Automatic annotation (TrEMBL), chains A, B:
Coiled-coil blocks: none
Native organism: Saccharibacter floricola DSM 15669
Lineage: Bacteria, Pseudomonadati, Pseudomonadota, Alphaproteobacteria, Acetobacterales
Listed name of the protein: Aspartokinase
Pathway membership, UniProt: Amino-acid biosynthesis; L-lysine biosynthesis via DAP pathway; (S)-tetrahydrodipicolinate from L-aspartate: step 1/4; Amino-acid biosynthesis; L-threonine biosynthesis; L-threonine from L-aspartate: step 1/5; Amino-acid biosynthesis; L-methionine biosynthesis via de novo pathway; L-homoserine from L-aspartate: step 1/3
Annotated family: Belongs to the aspartokinase family.
CDD domains referenced in this protein's UniProt entry, alphabetically: AAK_AKii-LysC-BS, ACT_AKii-LysC-BS-like_1, ACT_AKii-LysC-BS-like_2
Molecular function GO labels: kinase activity
Catalysis performed (reactions): L-aspartate + ATP = 4-phospho-L-aspartate + ADP
Length: 434, 434
């Protein structure tokens, strides 16, 4: 397949003019809520679609609801019943994407681009029955492909599908990214462009580190790890799906002029040319730290604590065990701030059974993670992180690692200091700001 | 079938308590936009549904969109393209009913009434392909009936269906009444209750004639004629469908406490006990009068005028031909004010061909109609109308009649005077106001 080198492999081929390509490139363009928030924005999206078509590409579009609309619908549902039936909740909240898919088709028609909307049930995009956060089971790409072959732009309502019983099901917040990747896989698209309100994936949060720089490429695994530890640009599920289905994803801004080299490309590791040691640094303040002191140092003590927590649906993230006084042991771990109260109540109730000394908690902690596929073959990444933090007098409370990620828990007041120091230490600072 | 006599035939049976009935009555309750305009109103509708269920009835519900929402959607569509694709327009505007059907199902669940929403495509309610004002071809009542048999309240989104190609189609403004009647026919419901913002059908407009009174019953044909000449309570199409399918329709208020004797019942002529000469008096200011003077009095002159008008889609309503000077003839007729300009332009263009003298128009006219099945067997109705108007010095410009209706075109400034005089003359004045 012929692909422009700026978005595809690294083969160095120059791009043939689109009109001479035998098989036109097929892309999926996905637009989020702020990109379709009013008629002017919808017209602007239509222009972007037309621009891609003029490059000779086949374009399928996926849209979110106008920003604010889904929240309004959720409020309606919960206003009537905080425990609203999930099927009905889905019928209500899916309406927002129905509106924008129809409106974008109209806006495209108005500038001479033939288009038609597809609701989830019309595609059909089949889901399981987990209403409210359903998983996609199968996307039947035939009708959408037929449209493309006829030169019509299919505009699919994101975030929604239909279950076996023909009830509308939604994919959970941010689900439109997943819809877009799933559609791209189903129709064999060459790329899935996610238009959003930022112009790509950054080495870290530019609000904290001014010298953060936009990445041209990032691997699926790095993106997955970054999304899982606080980076909010792409929904984790959509990245996982893109990795499994090998869909090239690009993140770019819908608010600026863009070309084929804009944004950040999320690709397989082999496609990533620049093998940086560390791709990005993320932080999360969503965790609370729980410490249990003076536990009996017995076999099975971890299971006695974490078994019941897991049974109660509390997700435990980072764990460290340390030696206490008199052959006792201490256990420190993190849970989501939302689940902290539930976890503590459970542990308090088990105090006599487990025979621990003291339970303390802290919410003034931040988890900082460095992520990069390069650390697979380089052992110095962790050492550099610990040394950099130590030089600034920052105490590491808990450490956890995965194959391509190192996370540390530190006092929240060192957040900015730690982020900037690490960004510089790993050589990520943007040159233009030097 | 056992029916309470207050809503059914005139057999004088006393009503058995619902719980002892072997076959529970099945009713369709339809709620318009003002009845579901916010969460409080939706909760109130849920209460009304529960009240009916407690009478031992099976209840299916049809809802409109929250008032204002459909207009907002139409504005969005036309804001992007005044000639928006009708399929896409339908996908957008049908979203309002999707929201209220889901919300009402949630509100019912919240008070312990099992319920589920049905979109048009889920029923399915099949339509033709005339998007924007589609006609219902078939309603598959099986899924809705299955719900009822399981004690679940089906809540159908009104105004919408699905065509053969699985595209969403809407039935045109006010189409939810038609949806409700069609559903009632499909599931063999005993009655279709249309809840609206008035408490029934009146002998005439109470804003003009204070002594207007609510009718307990009216026949389909009378309702059809009244709807066609200006009474706006029920959509004409829904009444026609009810007549063809023999669905008993009741119009009542969703803003007051109601019981089985509330509102107005629209029934077959045989079911109507009180055979009044005149059921109601309606008026319409939607028409313009066009007069063509000094036409050659030749055979075929009517065809020469009305053929082209009809070909151009201009609906001509009342027509009168009168003798002019020198063997010429004059032609006066009415068209909708919206079509007046188009009609005149067409006629001006044909001036040399038809060889008429002068074309004049007037918008200061009102069409007043008296409607009643009683006039089939009573020839005095028309005479009484002409005499009553003559006694007040009101000149009749054009007359048209049907089997159960007489309409006259008069100067608009006599509207109130004529309406009140006729209301009294036909003995329609409410006694309590005497």
């Amino acid at each position: 397949m012929s692909m422009p080198d700026c978005v595809g492999g690294g083969d160095g081929d120059t791009v043939l003019p689109a009109v001479t390509q035998k098989t036109p490139q097929t892309i999926v363009m996905k637009f989020g809520g702020t990109s379709v928030k009013d008629l002017d924005r919808i017209r602007s999206v239509a222009q972007k679609v037309q621009t891609e078509r003029r490059k000779g590409r086949h374009v399928a579009v996926v849209v979110s609801a106008m920003s604010g609309v889904t929240n309004q619908m959720v409020q309606y549902c919960h206003g009537l019943d905080p425990e609203a039936d999930a099927c009905e909740y889905d019928a209500v909240v899916a309406s927002g994407e129905q509106v924008t898919s129809g409106l974008l088709a109209i806006a495209l028609g108005a500038i001479g681009v033939p288009a038609r909307s597809f609701q989830g049930w019309q595609v059909p995009l089949l889901t399981d029955e987990a209403h409210g956060c359903a998983a996609i089971e199968r996307v039947d790409g035939r009708a959408v492909k037929e449209c493309l072959e006829q030169g019509i732009v299919p505009v699919m309502a994101g975030f929604q599908g239909v279950d076996k019983a023909q009830r509308i099901a939604t994919l959970g917040r941010g689900g439109s990214d997943t819809s877009a990747v799933a559609l791209a896989a189903a129709i064999g698209a060459d790329q899935c462009d996610i238009y959003t309100d930022v112009d790509g994936i950054y080495t870290t949060d530019p609000r904290i580190v001014k010298r953060a720089k936009r990445l041209e490429r990032i691997t699926y695994e790095e993106m997955l790890e970054l999304a899982s530890v606080g980076a909010k640009v792409l929904q984790t599920r959509s990245v996982g799906l893109a990795m499994r289905e090998n869909v090239k994803v690009r993140v770019l801004s819908s608010f600026t002029e863009t070309d084929d080299s804009s944004g950040t490309l999320v690709v397989e590791e082999d496609d990533s040319v620049e093998k940086e040691l560390v791709a990005g640094i993320a932080y999360s303040q969503d965790d609370a730290k729980i410490t249990i002191r003076n536990l009996p140092d017995e076999p099975g003590i971890s299971a006695a604590i974490f078994g019941p927590l897991s049974g109660a649906g509390v997700n435990v993230d980072m764990i460290v065990q340390s030696i206490g006084v008199d052959h006792s042991t201490n256990m420190t771990f993190t849970v989501s701030k939302k689940e902290e109260a539930r976890a503590c109540a459970l542990l308090e109730g088990m105090k006599s059974e487990i025979r621990y000394g003291e339970l303390t908690t802290s919410r003034d902690v931040v988890k900082i993670s460095v992520v990069g596929v390069g650390m697979r073959s380089n052992t110095g990444v962790a050492a550099k992180m610990f040394r950099t933090l130590a030089e600034r007098g920052i105490n590491i409370q808990v450490i956890s690692t995965s194959e391509i990620k190192i996370s540390v828990l530190i006092d929240a007041e060192y957040t900015e200091l730690a982020m900037r120091a690490l960004h510089t230490a790993y050589g990520l600072d943007a040159k233009k700001e030097d």
